[in-house]
Every structure is written in C-alpha cells, then in structure tokens.
Amino acid sequence: MRDDSSMMKNIAGVLACAESDIVNFSEIKEGLTNTSYSFEVAGQKYVYRHPGDGTEAIISRAHEKQSLELAKSIGADPTYIFMDEEKGWKISRFVEGIRTPSYDSFEDSKRVLAVMKKLHERRLSVDWSFLPWEEALKIEELLRAGDGIDDPGFELLKEQVGKCYKKCEGDGVETRFCHCDTYAPNWMLTDTETILIDWEYAGNADPGCDLGTYIMDSMWEVPEAEKFIREYCGEDMTDTQLFHYLAYTAILSYYWYVWAIYRESCGADMGDSLPNWHIMAQRYASYLVEKHQL
Fold first, then answer.
1. 46 or 58, which is more confident
2. How far is CA 116 from CA 95, 125, 129, 196, 231, in A?
3. pTM over cut 0.85
C-alpha cells in the first residue's frame, strides 16, 4: 500500500530538502516486484522505488544495496543515489530519452551482451550467491506450506529442469558477479549509454542467469537463442557452452515461474508473465531432454 507521507519524508531526508519542495510525484512503472514513481526537486528529476508486498521473504535488501553500490562503482548503474536496506525503498536519478531494448533487434542484443560480458569479465565477487534452482526449491516449500501448487504438470517440468541442471554441474562454466534479472525492462538505452538497473537478485551466480533471463523474456525459439549465445561466447563457443546457456534458460524460466506462482499467492497479478515463463521453461527443458536423451 502506498504511503505518501512516508515517501515524502524519505525523499526529503535523502535529498536534504523540505517536503514541500517535492513536486510532480506520479507513478511511472508498476513492475512485477515493485512500483516506481517520478518526482522533481529543484528542477532535477528522480525516481522513487517502493517495494512490493511479500518481497521481503525472497529478497535481501541488504544484499541489493551492496550490489547497487558495486554496480555504480563500475559504471553499470550510474543512476543509483540511495537505498534503505531495512525497508527496501530506493531513490535514483531519472534519465531522459531512454528506451528499452527490442527483442527483435540484434543490434540491441549486442549492446546488452557487451554490458553482460564486461560485468562477467570483471571477476567481481560478493559474499552471497544467487542459485536459481535451489531458490526455486525454497519457494516451492513456501507454496506447499500454504495453498500448494495448482499445476498438474508441475512435477514433470521440475524433473526435466532438474536433469538440465544436473548436466551443467561441473562443466567448467565459472560463477561471476551477475545481475540475474536482465529482462528488457531493466535496461535503459540512450544514444550513448546502456544502463542496467534494479539489482535485487544480483550476486555470485552462473553467467547463464544473465543470458537465460534475457532469452526467457524474449520468448525466442531455440535458434534465436543460439544466435544470442554465440554472440556472447564468440567464435570459440563449444557444444558444452551452448548446452549450458540453453539449460540455464530453462532453469531461469522455471525459477521465475515458481516465483510468479508465489507472488500471485501474495495477491499480485502476474498477468501474462506466469504462463509465458512456464512456456519457456517447458520449451527449453523438453528440447534439451529430448535432444540429449537426458
């Protein structure tokens, strides 16, 4: 629930202004996890992020704040100003003239991949990890402790995704500091900048978390995903790498599918996202299980 008085107080405290100086406060984005608002102070435009109900059970805001500070230090997210790690609200700089990348544009894909690759190659590290398969299992426990899971095909899907995950273990792809939520709405493209925002799920992770999330949201068929992966890996891409990143598309899609079921159990309306993520988990897991006879 939105609390205007609390938001105004938070903004005034961070920007050292009077609450009366905060003008043009309006909603700009109701996301899957949070709601964002734009506002102005002294002619400068900002964004206030308000966390969604129930997210405290699956997101560490302390980890998010450290990730944001790290992302800003390397130029991946220069918009960040302040975040309250206890309550989860955040203030950022508003960027004019932005657009999100188009999944139909390979030129946009190359811009996105360049940032992902740079982030992964920096070999940064934090003291926590994002493990989508294990996290999905934890969320499943939360669901079964409540109203359960109303999906008759759930166990088969879980089994197929689990086989993909098992084949990836020990295949030589090393963990990196990753964003882990790289779908198009979390990118801001201008003529000169490619900015990655919203670092709630960031941590040491498999690089497939970043590639897989973008592919998942694109709803691409396998050949399009293979083109994307080849651009990331370069001409020396191996069959192992190709399998790995396709498998992580299934794993990430499964994670977000389970996450979406949980969010709806908390009262959120996931719209088309829930069935779309189910489709992508099923598409890639069944393709790999059949092709590789797992």
1. 46
2. 21, 15, 17, 9, 12
3. yes
